[in-house]
């Protein structure tokens, strides 16, 4: 693994043409922590992950630390690859290609990294299976194994558990926690409060990072209303988000124990 370091993001701006996809955003990421990005559809979560992964060029500001080449991005799941005639082992091995380069040969270190990544993402028993025939949850674990095979210091996950069945969700959240213990910097996006509550730090997005801090300071009606406005309903001691327009849309309730007060 490439040793992790603190990541400092200062005044980061991302534009697509004339659209400001992410306005000036400042925050830090510490190694061995999980950070959740929460915000409504179109709030800039994917854009921020792409900027951290180095796949989009910032229009302004700076990103300092071990990102870009030391990061691995697991994009949102698309199920139109069922035709893909690849085994799970081949998909995981692809996670080494960036390190190998064009002429690199697959050596013992690469094989060891693939075996280790498969164990960490719990796909060791699936290696000979055709990737396209796996369930959504299994495919997502394989995609995480592919990312881990590159031994990233920073693991970036775009809505990693959205749309999966609860047991698959739990396995992936457990893998994220195990990676945190491993010293990896884990960043994931979600529009569900209960998922965000498992993080050490939450970035609340609404066109830019509006607030950053631990879940008990950020998953509160006064802060969330900045990002969700009228799409947030406070029911007694619970906050429910009504994020219409999202393809996997369903309400999310605040995890028990989060400090929520009626406005
Ligand atoms: P989220 O992941 O929170 O749903 P995105 O990062 O995908 O949000 O989008 C943030 C903003 O940037 C939105 O206004 C979206 O329409 C815009 N955007 C995203 N990708 C592109 C693109 N390739 N071209 C133009 N605008 C884009």
Characteristics:
alpha/beta, Rossmann fold, six-stranded mixed beta sheet, three-stranded antiparallel beta sheet, 9 helices, disordered C terminus, binds adenosine-5'-diphosphate
Spell out the CATH superfamily. Answer: P-loop containing nucleotide triphosphate hydrolases
Query: So, CATH architecture?
Result: 3-Layer(aba) Sandwich
Number of helices: 9
- Integer-rounded radius of gyration: 18 Å
Class by SSE composition: alpha/beta
Bound ligands, named by name, code or SMILES? adenosine-5'-diphosphate
What letter string, H or E per element, gives the SSE order? EEEHEEHHHHEHEHEEHHEEE
CATH overall fold name: Rossmann fold
In summary, what is this structure?
This protein has 263 residues and is α/β, with parallel strands linked by helices.
Characterize the structure shown.
With 263 residues, the protein is an alpha/beta fold. It has one domain: 3-Layer(aba) Sandwich (Rossmann fold), CATH 3.40.50.300. 30% of the residues lie in helices and 25% in strands. It contains 9 helices and 12 strands. The chain has helices spanning 45-53, 88-93, 97-100, 108-120, 136-149, 166-181, 193-196, 215-218, 221-228, and strands at residues 7-16, 19-29, 34-38, 60-64, 71-74, 154-157, 185-190, 201-205, 209-213, 232-235, 238-241, 252-253. The strands form 3 sheets. It has a 6-stranded mixed beta sheet with strand order 5-6-7-3-8-9, with helices on both faces. A hairpin with a 2-residue loop joins β1 (7-16) and β2. α4 runs antiparallel to α5. It is globular. The model is unreliable at 245-263 (pLDDT under 50). It binds adenosine-5'-diphosphate. Adenosine-5'-diphosphate binds next to β2 and α1.
